[in-house]
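haha ok so turns out i had the wrong file open the whole time. this is the CORRECT one, sorry everyone. sequence first:
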Amino acid sequence: MNVQGKLRRIDHHYVIEHRVREARVYFQGVRVDSIDAQQALSVVDSYLSSANRRARKVFFSNVHSIHLTRNDKELQWCINEADLVLPDGTGLKIAGRIQGHPIVENLNGTDFIPKVLARAEQQRWSVYLFGARPGVVEHCCSRLQMNYPKLNIVGHHHGHIHESEEPSVIEDINAKTPKILLVALGSPLQEKWIARNASNLNVGVCFAVGGLFDFLSGEYQRAPVWVRRFGAESLYRFTQDPRSKWQRIFVEQPLFLLLVFAARIIPWRAVDFITRTYRDK
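then structure:
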């Protein structure tokens, strides 16, 4: 590439990163980049075409992750220091309207990552899957190859590993040099794992994708389209797994919205007092 072409590419990267910074908002101290799917795909494109070889970190922020940060400042730091943080869930859309910073589009990973994989198939970007239970990740790979026949999946590993096995997993990832690494360990493990290891990973972009492999493998079913359009997918997931999801529905989301409303009518110090009181219980 000639010098002029390199300068155009650098300018393109700068413009995209500037747009992301301009779209940045915070909900209870946790960052969200309010952009739409097309803009997010353009950002991923720019990361993978950049001459900067460091692994980029793309996370999804939702009510659950914001709730976790109340007792986990390391997680809050990991999210806020990521390269891109996409908005996930109806709760953030409601909060955005109340705060006067509307969320442009709900970019939950279950909808957005398939768009990334479709682009990866077109662009011949290689993919590595890390996470989920043994058997689930293999089934996920098989389903992905059926849905994206030309997708180059260069490797996979389940996420139920001992700390002593981590170096061998990283070694395998680096040997395969994937453009895209999907990490499905659940919050806060996945964000911390990526933040801790990004500097040692020979990959283009790391995505923290939560329970994505369970859905892609067919382990769990997604809500019908009309339920998603209504913004009630979290309720549908609760019906599938009430034991692990009840707190998200009946504690985390009400508390989050309570604090959003409270911040509009009382000083933030009072809201901070409410948060500390809940945290210290």
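The beta strands are 24-27, 30-33, 56-61, 84-87, 126-131, 152-157, 180-184, 205-208.
again sry for the mixup
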